[in-house]
Amino acid sequence: MQTFPFSIALLALCLHTTLSLGTNNRAYLERDISVNCGSIATSAALNGRKWIGDAQLKSASWLSIKGSSKISSLIHKLISDDPVPHKTARVSSSRFSYDFHLSPGQKILRLHFNPSPYKGFKKFKDLFTVEAGPFILLSNFSASLTARALGVSTFTKEFCISIEENQPLNIVFSPAISSSQDGTYAFINGIEISSVPEGLTYFRGADLGAQVVGRNSMVYIDNNTALEIIHRLNVKRDSVSLGDEFDMLGIRATVLKQKAIEINNLTWKRFVDVGFRYLVRIHFCELGLKMAETRNVMFKVIVNEMIVDSEIDLIKERNENGYLWYRDYVVVIKGRKQEGRRDLLISLQSDNEFIDRYGPFKGFEIFKLSNPDNSLASPNPLPPVMAVRDLPSWITRDLLSLLGSRNVIATVAVTIISIVSIMVHELRKIWEVNLTEEETKPSARAERHCRRFSLAEIRSATQNFSNAFFIGKGGFGIVYKGLIDNGRETVAIKRLKSSSRQGKREFWTEIETLSELRHKNLVSLIGYCNEYREMILVYDYMTCGTLADHLYKHARGSDKDSSLTWKQRLNICIGAGRGLDYLHTGHGIIHRDVKSSNILLDENFISKVSDFGLAKPEDRNKLQSHVSTKVKGTHGYIDPYYVRFSKLTRKSDTYAFGVVLLEVLCGRPAMDRRLGEDECFLTKWAQNRINKGEVEQIVDSSLIGEISANSLKVFVGIAKSCLHDEPKKRPAMGQVVLQLELALAQQETRKDVIPNQITNVADETTLPVSPEQPTVASSESIELGKNQRVNTELPPANKDGRKPKMYKSPRFWVWDALWKRGKVSRNEEVVPNFLPEIYEAGAKLPEYDFATIEAATNQFSDSNMIGHGGYGTLYKGVLLTGQMVAVKRLSQNSRQVLDEFKREILLISNLQHRNIIKLIGYCIHGEPMLLYEFMENGSLHTHIYDEAQRRLLHWDVRFKIIMGIVRGISYLQQDSGMKIIHRGIQTSNILLDIQMNPIISGFGLATTLEDDHSVVETRVVGTMGYLDPEYCIYGTASFMSDIYSLGILILEIVGGKRFYSRSYDPNLVAYAWKLWNEGNILHLVDESIEGAFSDEEALRCIQVGLLCTQQNRHHRPTMTSVCKMLLGEELSFETIVASCKGNAECIDVVNFMNACPEPTSSHGSEASVATFEYDETMQR
């Protein structure tokens, strides 16, 4: 009876042992291994290291070779000193892999290459990708080009990766896709895997970070990072030699022989690839540090001209830890990978002499760190031009072998003649290439903004320019579809005719032009290739082709009409018009080849103006508005005035755009030689019919019955104006866009709307649309360049003359006396001349004079005053057009106030979003004032805190307001291109239009982030209750500062409650958490709604509010996540909020107030309340 439990235990133990053996029958390699790829035997290298042939390892339990591949040997004689492992290779035109089962730990992986011709495979056809586990080690890699650039016959690539327990190491070789018969292939000569010696760990994990040189930040290198070993150098040797193969650091020396060390004042210069981070590990000598300490030797360690350590720091750390082997630093080499290589400098400087030359310096290592996409890949190096000095040796050798010794004199003579002839030929080619490159070298800006592709990459992307990738053909060359970055991105590749001298100029013109431009309605240039006399441009791929395709090209030869609706056509024209207006007003560029086939359409039918090969910049240093130049363009679109006088103006583009408008309306090309003489040219035929009143007869048959009469009338009118014989009587493109928007509005409403009269503007003058004319607001923006946008709209005039109901919050009455001021003489000039800076920044806004604003506000009467705030008084005004505006009059003329005035002009004028306040104009002469669009429903502050108004805020309106605010903040942070932190998100800065749409205002405190920064250090300004705790305490503002304020705002909107209240001490956030913990979170919803709300929507809003108000900014969601969560599109909601349940991070207002420094006023000596009340009067 007592043996029964023992028997069961024994049986269980045996079963467990059996299962363990069954599940772990895979053998793991514990030692280092060297695999001679393509070999069937074990060989020894010259250094004595044993290499095992992979052909005999196929049956090994720790290695498996998968995929289709061949073993091959060299065709020619081996040039390398060591035949192992360079004599044989494993080669394949398809994917193959090595799967190693290794013991866990950090491993050094060395890949050996000998790019020579192999049986069945040609040299310079190797192009492949190498992956190790999740990491891309090499991509579109050509060993032949690399060896040629390095000037070596064999070389090695060395990497460091971490292997986890029970994780195989899969090394995959994948040839690039090719359609040619002798396509690309992948090969490998040798693979070495060795363990990193103890004490030399490279993966420091999440606990120990490496300092980034020049920044106050750390980089944590863990097992999710791969390293490429770029360089390793010892300046000293141990007394005990480890052999020629090993260096002082315990790692095998690099096989590739390095050139002599260049040391100048103990400075080492090494070239590294652009676009990566590098770990620089500097090793120190214990004896050297001890001697430096005893002899008081001062020295500095410098990386890239920045001091990273001194003897004080190093000796201190050595004394604290008892040793100091090495220090790690991270260097960021910013830029695009295609920019090539840059210097990385490591220096040791001292005013004292060391006993030996290097003092405490023992050596250093440089490692490239994998990027966030797990890639270490860089472009292939460019092959060098053949040097003339290398010619005689191979020419003489080949000639002598051919002629032998039959006639030595003849042989010598032929040799000399051949050498001279070939030298002249080669020198001429070199001279031509250098001359061409010098003439057509891109600017530094173009090189920074455009990616430079190798010809091998282009051939791989298009499968060697396969007909299957053919898109179209024109006078410029051929366009192909292409796949780059391992097929992750589809692009359009334009291959220009290499024989065209004119094509070369157009090639570089397009690169220079597009590198300066950033606009949603202009095609984006990704990069270019100019190797081997090829001229290739790479663009974003436009899924829907060209406008011409949809208007008439696809319809030819078929009975089908164009599928584009009239609204689609109008939107396409509006987008293309905006792009041209951006070219003209933002950069002074004349396109010169506007036509329907140069207007591309993306998958959403958003139009993109393309083909800038003929673009011509205006000469802004001259007074005339034209450019005298040769006539270039496309027949049917060329401006007759340009043809007659060779004077190119912006209005030449306007004329061509008018032709495009007729194409859009008529559905036929600008010129059709199949038709008779009277109908061949579209402009002549269409204008003749229009003048006869036969407009309906020219309309595309697919549009009959679809176009409203008023829309057609406006469209035809603007087309005729664009085609006027006199350029000065043609409208500017900005005015064309406004008229097209009016045509669209009339089509959507199908009501009779009187069209705007088109004002003709001279080329040399840029004027805004007259404020006396009613216009249709644009829903889009025009970008002026990097991080700049121009507001192209003016709000519609208030035609009915009604005075909207006004509200004045009692909280502002207290501060009225603070802002009373005497009138400033209209003749007194008190404002610095900001106009040049405003114009240069592209603030395209009307400027109003003092008299106009004074009249609009009834002499700034108290009856028109609607509040105070920030740095001024706010008045209601009515312009002569009847348009109602809000006029902000500055309270003082201090430098700081004027700077904020200028900042608001430059900032808001470059923003275009339906939930962002629109700046209508400004006054700068006599007195600084700003004119905004008038908000009929005042501010959210009034509607939330006034009990009568709050009852009118139904739940659907509140949710609409929340979503609008979220979209507005998201635009500021992500889509505006300016990375804006508002710093004043609060109820008083949220205005409501006539449809109760939220409008974000109050940009006087706004700031922007630099491109590579996530925070900005600045003084603390804002309103208590909405202030981000981290910003308040540490003075560092970020996007998360606005997200915190947003969270407070959402809770206030949902609850109809202020942040502070006696009914829930200490604050609204703590009260919300209390309800959450009690399971009564929906009790937070405003009682005035009386239960008429969506439980699901309310719960999502409250949860988002709680997440946004986490004290630690890293715990807050991004704006993208906020939007998704509010719409119920992002999961794991309950889990996230539950983790914060009862969190101590919920802010205790007393402790928070005590911890915060006093927020500073934005106006110097003014009371801080001026900042906190900023723009709250904009609520009207």
List the helices and strands and how they pair.
Blueprint: H1 3-23, E1 33-36, E2 42-44, E3 50-53, E4 63-67, E5 70-73, E6 88-92, E7 96-100, E8 105-113, E9 128-132, E10 135-141, H2 143-150, E11 155-163, E12 169-175, E13 186-188, E14 190-195, E15 210-212, E16 218-219, E17 227-234, E18 267-273, E19 276-284, H3 286-294, E20 299-303, E21 306-310, H4 311-321, E22 326-333, E23 341-350, E24 361-369, H5 391-403, H6 408-439, H7 444-449, E25 451-452, H8 455-461, E26 470-474, E27 477-484, E28 489-496, H9 501-514, E29 525-529, E30 536-540, H10 547-553, H11 566-587, E31 589-590, E32 599-601, E33 607-609, E34 616-617, E35 627-628, H12 640-645, E36 647-648, H13 650-666, H14 677-680, H15 682-691, H16 709-722, H17 733-749, E37 782-785, E38 788-790, H18 816-819, H19 835-840, H20 850-856, E39 865-869, E40 872-878, E41 884-890, H21 895-908, E42 919-923, E43 929-933, H22 940-945, H23 947-950, H24 955-975, E44 980-981, E45 990-992, E46 998-1000, E47 1007-1008, E48 1015-1017, H25 1029-1034, E49 1036-1038, H26 1039-1055, H27 1068-1078, H28 1095-1108, H29 1119-1126, H30 1133-1139, H31 1149-1155, ...
Parallel strand pairs: 1-3, 15-22, 25-29
Antiparallel strand pairs: 1-14, 2-3, 4-7, 5-6, 6-13, 7-12, 8-11, 8-14, 9-10, 9-12, 11-17, 15-16, 17-24, 18-23, 19-22, 19-24, 20-21, 20-23, 26-27, 27-28, 28-30, 29-30, 31-34, 32-33, 35-36, 37-38, 39-40, 40-41, 41-43, 42-43, 44-47, 45-46, 48-49
